[in-house]
Amino acid sequence: QVQLVESGGGLVQAGGSLRLSCTASGTIFSINAMGWYRQAPGKQRELVARMPRGGSTNYADSVKGRFTISRDNAKNTVYLQMNSLKPEDTAVYYCNADILLSASRSVGYWGQGTQVTVSS
After folding, report:
1. Per-residue pLDDT reduced to its tens digit, 45-70
2. CA proximity to 58, closest of 44, 45, 46
């Protein structure tokens, strides 16, 4: 059984910073892509940033230059450093990972979500 556990959300003023963390645990053969999505009230869940195990990283246009995704493969952990936060960044942020349970079986997992609130 695999779990993704997120931490680091909270309330911050506009212009401030937060760092989110997400750690995968359980029976894991390997992890391919890891990333972050967010969902604001009344809106669809959207990609924030995604990082393959190898290859180029994708960012939503709205966060480019302000957010940075990174990962520690030895710790099965992905981070999201969020700087220059804006009220429109307010959302529940979800971690996502494509996890290899064996050499031939890949399953996508979601974390429980962490609330980020940016006040103006």
Report:
1. 999 999 998 878 999 999 999 999 99
2. 46
